[in-house]
Amino acid sequence: MTIQVAELEQRLAALELRCEEYRMMEETADAIPFRMTTDLSRFLYVGPQAERLLGIARHEWLVPGFLEQRLAPEDRSATLEQCRLVVEFGASHEAEFRLRRDDGTWAWVRCAMQTFESSAGATLAGHFFDITVRRSLESDLAQFQRLEAVGRLAAGIAHEINTPVQFVNDNVTFAGEAVQDLLGLLQHYRDASHQLPASEQARLGQLEESVDLDYLRTHVVEALAASNSGLATVATLVRSMKAFAHPDGRRKEPADLNAALMTTTVISTNEHKYVADIKTELGDLPPVACYISELNQVFLNLIVNAAHAIGDKVNGSGKRGVISIATRVDGSHVVIAISDTGTGIPEHVRGRIFDPFFTTKDVGKGTGQGLTIASTIVQKHGGALTFDTELGKGTTFFVRLPIAS
Amino acid sequence: MSAKRVLIVDDSQTVRLQVAKALSCAGYEVLEAIDGVDGQDKIDASVDMLICDVNMPRMNGLEMLETIKRDGKNANLPCLMLTTECQPQMIERAKKAGAKGWIIKPFKAELLVAAVTKLVAAR
After folding, report:
1. Do B103 and A74 touch (CB under 8 A)?
2. Which of A71, A89, A111, A115 to mutate to test the interface with B (most CBs of B within 10 A)?
3. Which tens digit of pLDDT belongs to each residue from B63-106?
4. Residues of A with CB below 8 A from B83's CB?
């Protein structure tokens, strides 16, 4: 009898050890185990790693109504419906959705679930996986592909516009020179016309007056000069578009970042010309090994953001702000500083501005990807994207890049 | 007893094949339609269950479901939606038109068979 008890106790201890081992494995894996009531109203258990992996404290999960409250509104009905299918039909299924973390940001979650019957009744059980990084990469990729398509299109259009602009420009220049010559000749005719009979002179005088010759002589030249200057603007814009959309090779190539910044300010003219003046302080920079069209994308994002920040501040008051662009060498790095005199970044969002999908802009205006992509590109170049901001005064973004690759 | 008949309406041949394979292995006879218009033509009293995609050319799944409900003849035919769409308004519309479930792709054969079995038996 005593032997049997001892043996049972030994087995029980072994079983407990086994249980503990399984619990350890389950609660340290990247798959987060959970169990919840089949009416989906509350969680009965969530692995402790949920706090670390998904940023939601363990006690929060156990609050009744957690799932419904924390699901992104767009995902709520579809997700609850997938859970309901599992409960109703007793088969396993998966769902992907966003959950609001304790700090207000969103975590993308994949959930594999099934029903689990026990003496205590049925529960919905399974695992959560954090797929935020995967989703963010997918979305970055989609954004890059869209931008690449737009870039190719722009380069194509720029090329098509370039040819007619060139010959229109040549013709206007030719017309300007021809008009100068004709006006010189006209003066000679005018001088010579004094030798004509008085009746002829009177007729010529009438004709000159009917076409308003004096007006034509001054304004034709002005009109042609203005056309030339307009065409020069178009030509600069077209050249900038071509430079901006220049396809990158597989390897980094040395590029003039000051020139790239000037190109980008031309490209983005329409974003800033109504709200801000551009001030530049460009230092002497050596060529920097980089993927230039990717950096152009970074500069464009920062300049457009600066213009929006100023736009939000001046907001139709007729006042204007300043976007300052400064470059300098700092040891083995170059630093590009893009400052605005806009609204500044409120303290509670400063930690999140580089987060994917984070935006303070109105729905449809920002994708929340601009700074995420900019930061990804700068990091890919071995550099860093940082900022300094003061509420109501403005923000400066610093792009720090190594000179050698 | 003859096999129960399930109609799958989806413009993707791959999905139709996948559904047909899962259900025929479970003993169902599977009919196929390539869009809402084709689906409507193929529904008659001999069909026991409908599985339906949402986005399809000519007539989408929601319109088809609503038309069937309006017609009245086959209004009680159980229906499952099988789609990648997850918009709350669409799900609500399908439920209003009598859909018994909204399965988001990718799906497992096991879930589809379990759902069809239960819904056909409850008829």
Report:
1. no
2. A89
3. 999 999 888 888 889 999 999 998 999 999 999 999 999 999 98
4. none
Superfamily of domain A250-405: Histidine kinase-like ATPase, C-terminal domain (3.30.565.10)
d(CA B117, CA A63): 35
Question: A92 and B111: CB-CB below 8 Å?
Answer: yes
> CA B8 to CA A183: how far, in whole Å?
83
Indicate yes or no: CB of A92 within 8 angstroms of CB of B118. no
ipTM (interface pTM): 0.90
| Secondary structure (3-state) at A200 | helix
Domains of chain B in sequence order: 5-121 (3.40.50.2300)
CATH number of A31-130: 3.30.450.20
Q: pLDDT by residue (tens digit) across A158-202?
A: 888 888 888 898 999 999 999 999 999 999 998 998 899 999 999
Residue A284 half-sphere exposure toward CB, CA atoms < 13 A:
0
What is the interface size between A and B, counted as CB pairs within 8 Å?
Answer: 54
What average pLDDT does range A383-397 have in this prediction? 93
Q: Beta-strand (E) ranges in A250-357?
A: 253-255, 276-282, 288-290, 321-330, 333-340
DSSP symbols for A17-40: HHHHHHHHHHHHSSSEEEEEETTS
Contact A91 B110 (CB under 8 A): yes
Do residue B111 and residue A85 have CB atoms under 8 angstroms apart?
yes
User: Are domains A31-130 and A250-405 of this chain identical in fold?
Assistant: no
Task: Give the minimum alpha-carbon distance from B118 to chain A in angstroms, rounded to a whole number.
Answer: 7
Nearest to B85 by CA among B66, B65, B61, B49: B61
β A321-330/A276-282 pair status: parallel
